[in-house]
Amino acid sequence: MKFVDEATLKVHAGNGGRGCVSFRREKFVPFGGPDGGDGGLGGSVYLRAVEGMNTLADFRISRTFKARNGESGSGNGCTGHGGDDLYVEVPVGTVVTATDTGETLGDLIALDQTLLVAKGGKGGWGNTRFKSSTNRAPRRAGIGLPGEKRELMLELKLIADVGLLGLPNAGKSTLIRAISAARPKVADYPFTTLTPNLGVVSAGPGRSFVMADIPGLIEGAAEGSGLGIRFLKHLQRTRVLLHLIDIAPLDPAADPVRDARTIVNELKKFSADLVAKERWLVLNKIDLVPPEEAQRRVKDIVRRLRFKGKVLAISGATGSGTEQLIGGVMRYLEEHPRDASAGTDDTQSAVR
What we know:
Layout: E1 6-12, E2 45-50, E3 64-66, E4 86-91, E5 94-98, E6 104-108, E7 114-118, E8 149-156, E9 162-165, H1 172-179, E10 197-204, E11 207-213, H2 228-231, E12 240-246, H3 256-270, H4 272-275, E13 278-284, H5 291-305, E14 311-313, H6 322-335
Parallel strand pairs: 1-3, 2-4, 9-11, 9-12, 12-13, 13-14
Antiparallel strand pairs: 1-8, 2-7, 5-6, 5-8, 10-11
Helix pairs in contact: 3-5
């Protein structure tokens, strides 16, 4: 299925049912009085986060969702049957925004979390409700209120523990193939990865984390150049960023330090929160140069960048250093569990 991380849809809650005008008709009770029941409630529309959906592609086909109307009331004080609520399934990590106001309605970050997006209309009153001391035989009833109508923008932000970032051909796809079951395309030309890929990395019995391979960034990504602007948002939910740097670029004029600074600048332009995340330098492709030369290049890059964080040297192609990388990431994630409130907002009272 094609990866789609943005979609618009229209939701229409059910209308309330009509109230009933009715009078008791019983033997020996010639003036039984009104007994019309109220109309039923219209069905509401909810979004529900489910497992197994990784894209919003389904909403490119089905864009309109309508709940059932409430049924009309009937005699003998019977209230009409309420319309069934409609639950629309979306991937975990979906952010919901009202297109007319730009208001964020909710953020579905947990499995089976639901969000009310359109409330059903109230049923109309039956004529029993209009009875009074001065009007003992009312012949009026309510028609029922219309259900809410909304146009929504859905935006998917993948929920992963670890995000890979770097220039095209830094070796991100090769790394995720080497340490997980994900099988992204790998080739020797830029922008081989066109959509994010998720892989589950095992760190031992009962210990694992989810890694996201994001399409390569280039200078100007935050302004829309290349593929980066579309996919930078998928790094926002990660807890650790692994910044891959190619220490043996094919272009002799390429400077790994300049390229690394380019990536950091794009993160700053896109989001201050993103650049403040825990970021490790992962110096890749050490298998392409002699060990002594690889060690010299690693030290030179770290010195010129003045980087004070975690630094690892690996080869995604041969697997050298990947066990230390997996173990280090797993320990960090266990020591820094995800905040249960991350990604929520003031609208969460609408989520139940």
